[in-house]
Write a structure and sequence with these properties.
two-stranded antiparallel ribbon, 2 domains, mainly alpha
Amino acid sequence: MGVEGCTKCIKYMLFFFNFIFWLTGGVILGVALWLRHDPKISNLLELELDGAHAPNTFYISVHILIAVGAVMMVVGFLGCYGAIQESQCLLGTFFACLVILFACEVAAGIWGYMHKDTVSREMINFYDSVYDKAVTQSFTDQDKKRAVGSVLKVFHETLNCCGKGQGSTFLTHLTDKLGLTDLCPSQAYTISCHHRIQELFSDKIYLIGIAALVVAVIMIFEMIFSMVLCCGIRNSPVY
């Protein structure tokens, strides 16, 4: 082939990083699909009460992550093939795709950092509205008592929690024992559902953030190597 010496070393390093990039895209795609079908998250985000649905902000982020993983696999393959074939056209296209992906990732990272608590806050607000309806209708509207209680018990049994805080948790356990309500699981859970919701979604968001950071580092190296290789191919006397 046309390149020799250090440029040839860059060629194989670029191929290696592109292979890692391709694998990373596959991992991100797999993680995103796992988050999309995680039983706990699915149970919560598919809830509906009186026409009000659980907030879907988290699923929007996951769907974007699925698209990113798929695009990364395509771009990674393009980079591997371009490096082996020493094609300036493919390497130039690969570099342009990387720049676009990197810009999108930086923008998504900034947006995600600014709204990192949005998912938990929206879900907590939805839980509070269901909890308040369940407690109120347990005393005033017996027809809707069972429907609201079943939605609330999905929260409690999925997250192993009960109530909005220690005070409401104790009160709910007390009304359950008196037979006025049937909202908490049979197990004596004393953990606030606010805490469980924040714990569940914060862990997933940090996982997404770590994946994005790893991808960003790989992309920086790939952009450098692709430009060096492209210049080396252009200056090489043999094609």
